[in-house]
């Protein structure tokens, strides 16, 4: 009866509601909600799509279904969300729980069966509406640190029927917060010919003057022409010192609102355009995320509202004006910045000529670059703007501009390796030079005949590199010939220091066994409670392959009763 009722409710369209339900969902944990990360917080190349809830620096806390529903998706991966569970609810919303340690026994058994059928730890499943039905307050999982998590916590989301993540706090998930957002940097940008800030045609850092009431003033500036502003800001809640994201930013010019960005909902298709919101070049050079309070062309973000002149302001000669920035968190704690601007019609004294190279990228067209044995294919709309690109090849080293421009799409780098000895070609890969020491970092490489290709979103310097080192495999909690009757787990450490682990396969007495891979600890783990290993004498065989095809085989015998 309960399943039939659930099916009827799921078929009902309730998406026309004007407000988010406040009492429908409970908290996913039974502890006080303290956040390590807020919704739409600025991350590398994306907006954070949920709340990161602290779990007291431990794993294994109970995760509860926040409302009745059914498990509609399960994804287990080495990276990203790690072990993740998706629950669809009768009111049309879906809740997401990620970085889990493990699932409830019923769900765990369902997953294990599928993993053994597919002989794969990594798996994605879409159970039918009546396979894994849950009720509000059911224990569905336990918190962990799987995937790309930086420490134990629960990543929690609520999505609408179009798979758009929404701030869970809009549904009544409460967090103690009485603190105003903090502002650490403000910059002004001259836009266009003859515009200046304090006589300069370059962006200018403005001096912040904190006030006793928590607000800020900016040292008055002289300016002329079209100008814009950016701000670096964070928010802190009462119970944690984490540098979290803010909820809303508004700007006003002479008392009239001319810009707003509201972080309450976004779509995954637009999240990559975070790099158009921030000053990307500034971030790459200084690791500070300045949020631009103006909208440049080819910016498709849906977060903006109440926009006049794309957020820019126009300063004319001998006028005095006031620009105001209001930054708020979800609890409406608000910090205000006032900037007094005096018009000053003068030509900037530091105008520099544009840098011109032999190659010009038209963002609306496909672009192909080639020199020697290297070529680069850039699909149309890969970049936001047209620009002169720095492209050159010398001794298999590709210089492809500086990594200071945001990239929307993958482009392809190709190397013809036919001039290399046949015995060397199998161990070649494309690497990006990163860091102060130009470390050759593996860039996902494919080979077809004598052509190596890598799809990437990173401008920078690339080279051909060689990986001659095979992965290493070491037993952690046993030795060859050990009796493991009293052991719950079988553990090995696997590592590849050059290109990284591509895949692994483990078997006992010729039968595939499930081994969970924790890439952060470099540990493979088999749980004997899977009841797959039933013989007394067991021959273990593990094969690990790196990203250019070097492989290592480990074999051992162990005993169990």
What does this protein structure show overall?
There is one protein chain. The protein is mostly beta strands and 561 residues long. The strands form nine sheets. Strands 15, 16, 17, 18, 19, 20, 21, 22, 23, 24 and 25 form an eleven-stranded mixed beta sheet that branches. Strands 1, 4, 6, 7, 8, 10, 11, 13 and 14 form a nine-stranded antiparallel beta sheet that branches. A hairpin with a 6-residue loop joins strand 6 and strand 7 (83-88). The chain is globular, with a radius of gyration of 28 Å. The two termini are 45 Å apart. Residues 1-18 have low confidence and may be disordered.
Approximately what portion of the residues adopt beta-strand conformation? 35-45%
| Contiguous helical run count | 5
| Total number of strands | 46
Which runs of at least 5 residues are low in confidence (pLDDT < 50)? 1-18
Overall geometry: globular
Largest sheet: 11 strands, mixed
Helix proportion of residues, in percent?
under 10%
- As a whole number of angstroms, the C-alpha radius of gyration is 28 Å
């Amino acid at each position: 009866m309960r399943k039939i009722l659930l099916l009827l409710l799921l078929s009902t369209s309730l998406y026309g509601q004007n407000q988010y339900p406040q009492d429908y969902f409970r908290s996913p944990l039974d502890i006080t909600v303290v956040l390590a990360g807020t919704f739409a917080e600025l991350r590398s190349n994306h907006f954070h799509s949920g709340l990161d809830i602290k779990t007291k620096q431990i794993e294994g806390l109970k995760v509860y279904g926040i409302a009745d529903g059914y498990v509609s998706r399960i994804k287990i991966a080495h990276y990203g969300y790690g072990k993740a569970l998706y629950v669809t609810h009768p009111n049309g919303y879906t809740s997401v729980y990620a970085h889990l340690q493990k699932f409830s026994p019923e769900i765990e058994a369902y997953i294990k069966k599928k993993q053994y059928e597919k002989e794969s730890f990594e798996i994605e499943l879409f159970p039918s509406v009546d396979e894994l039905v849950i009720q509000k307050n059911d224990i569905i999982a336990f918190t962990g640190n799987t995937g790309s998590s930086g420490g134990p916590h629960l990543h929690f989301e609520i999505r609408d029927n179009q798979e758009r993540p929404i701030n869970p706090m809009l549904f009544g998930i409460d967090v103690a917060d009485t603190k105003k957002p903090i502002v650490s940097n403000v910059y002004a940008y001259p836009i266009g010919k003859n515009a200046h800030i304090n006589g300069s045609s370059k962006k200018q850092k403005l001096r912040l003057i904190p006030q006793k009431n928590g607000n800020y003033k900016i040292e008055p500036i002289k300016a002329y022409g079209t100008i814009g502003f950016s701000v670096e800001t964070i928010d802190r809640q009462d119970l944690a010192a984490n540098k979290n994201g803010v909820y809303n930013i508004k700007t006003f010019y002479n008392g009239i609102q001319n810009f707003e960005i509201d972080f309450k909902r976004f779509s995954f298709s637009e999240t990559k355009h975070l790099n158009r919101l921030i000053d990307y070049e500034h971030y790459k050079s200084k690791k500070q995320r300045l949020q631009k309070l103006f909208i440049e062309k080819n910016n498709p973000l849906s977060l903006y509202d109440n926009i006049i002149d794309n957020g820019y302001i126009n300063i004319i000669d001998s006028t005095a004006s006031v620009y105001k920035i209001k930054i708020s968190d979800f609890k409406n704690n608000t910090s205000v910045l006032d900037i007094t601007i005096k018009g000053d019609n003068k030509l900037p004294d530091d105008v520099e000529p544009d840098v011109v190279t032999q190659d010009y990228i038209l963002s609306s067209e496909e672009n192909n670059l080639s020199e020697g044995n290297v070529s680069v294919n850039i699909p149309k709309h890969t970049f936001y703007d047209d620009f002169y690109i720095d492209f050159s090849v010398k001794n298999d080293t590709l210089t492809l501009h500086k990594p200071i421009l945001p990239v929307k799409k993958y482009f392809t780098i190709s190397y013809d390796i036919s001039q290399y000895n046949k015995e060397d070609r199998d161990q070649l890969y494309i690497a990006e030079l990163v860091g102060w020491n130009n470390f050759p970092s593996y860039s996902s490489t494919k080979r077809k005949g004598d052509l190596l290709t890598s799809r990437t979103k990173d401008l920078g310097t690339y080279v051909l590199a060689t990986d001659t080192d095979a992965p290493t495999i070491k037993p952690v909690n046993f030795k060859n010939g050990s009796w493991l009757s009293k052991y719950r787990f079988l553990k090995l450490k696997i590592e590849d220091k050059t290109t990284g682990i591509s895949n692994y396969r483990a078997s006992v007495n010729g039968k595939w066994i499930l081994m969970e891979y924790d890439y952060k600890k470099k540990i493979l783990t088999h749980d004997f409670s899977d009841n797959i290993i039933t013989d007394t004498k067991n021959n273990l065989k593990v094969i690990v392959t790196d990203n250019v095809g070097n492989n290592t085989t480990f074999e051992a015998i162990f005993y169990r009763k």
